[in-house]
Specification:
It contains four helices and 13 strands. The chain is of the alpha+beta class and about 170 residues long. The strands form four sheets. Strands 1, 3, 5, 6 and 9 form a five-stranded antiparallel β-sheet that branches. A hairpin with a 2-residue loop joins strand 11 and strand 12.
Length: about 170
């Protein structure tokens, strides 16, 4: 049924949506199986992220900063980004809520374009650790990213690991 829907979507010109759905399905399957994705040579330079603190207690907020860097020799004319919970976050059952994204973005999924060669765009997102979140040595909040970009050089996408997580301590 899913394949039939995806096949029909391809005929309607929804290629990016289909690619994203297939990628997310493969990420979910490989996460369960413990498989690690091979990264493109420049993936770590396209998306970088960090938190403003290494440790947070339930009820506190940590700010996530995500930066896109254009690795092309031409302007990037379109970006798409998803922020996804890391396996450690799911395993530790941390409870959190993401706030409103701000920065050089049109919304939480799109950096403002065009982005010149070597140029960057940054967004910040407050991540509130819920007051009733579990806490302790194995409880973390971290993310990985799906990034898609278009330029006259082509369309590129990939899954990029995030920076160090926030440890949720009691």
């Amino acid at each position: 049924m899913i394949i039939a829907h995806l096949s029909g979507a391809l005929h309607k010109g929804e290629g990016m949506l289909v690619r994203r759905i297939l990628l997310m399905l493969s990420v979910a399957a490989t996460t369960v199986l413990g498989v690690v994705f091979a990264q493109p040579a420049n993936a770590e330079y396209v998306i970088t992220s960090s938190f403003d603190k290494q440790v947070a207690k339930p009820g506190e907020t940590a700010t996530l900063t995500v930066t896109f860097k254009n690795p092309e020799t031409v302007d990037v004319t379109f970006t798409f980004l998803t922020v996804n919970s890391s396996y450690d976050t799911m395993l530790g059952k941390a409870k959190y809520k993401m706030g409103e994204c701000t920065g050089e973005i049109t919304d939480c999924n799109h950096f403002t374009t065009p982005i010149p060669p070597g140029g960057t765009r940054t967004m910040t997102v407050p991540v509130a650790i819920e007051a009733d979140s579990p806490c302790g040595a194995q409880v973390r909040v971290g993310f990985y990213f799906y990034s898609y970009r278009e330029s006259t050089a082509g369309a590129f996408d990939g899954v990029v690991g995030g920076g160090p997580p926030v440890n949720v301590q009691c």
